[in-house]
Design goal:
The chain has 108 residues and is an alpha/beta fold. It is 26% helix and 21% strand. It is globular and about 50 Å long.
């Protein structure tokens, strides 16, 4: 039996979505005011992810969090990793995840 794996499936823990919980988009801006990362409510909505996977024939999604790339905060990395691990427990067999580590920090 073949298995279809989405190895680059974006997910953002709800705690990192910013203050907007109304379903509207959030946009992160660089130091010059240019948009570089767009959030939408579906990034944090794992049941919606599973429905989209089912419609698309995807068996397993490996979650990655844009907020974790080059992340300097060890606490934020732990939040992301814990959230991805919880997603794996909540959706057994459907989720995997990339671990993130704080840039410049050593976890003990």
């Amino acid at each position: 039996m073949e298995m279809i794996i989405d190895f680059h499936h974006h997910y953002t823990p709800p705690e990192l979505m910013g203050r907007r919980q109304d379903g509207c988009s959030n946009v992160r801006l660089d130091e010059n005011g240019n948009p570089y990362y767009r959030f939408n409510a579906e990034l944090a909505d794992l049941p919606t992810h599973v429905r989209m996977m089912d419609r698309s024939g995807i068996d397993v999604a490996v979650l990655s969090c844009g907020g974790g790339f080059d992340q300097p905060s060890l606490a934020t990395c732990r939040l992301i990793n814990d959230s991805v691990h919880q997603a794996e427990r909540n959706h057994p067999g459907r989720r995997g995840g990339h671990c993130v580590g704080a840039s410049g920090a050593i976890a003990r």
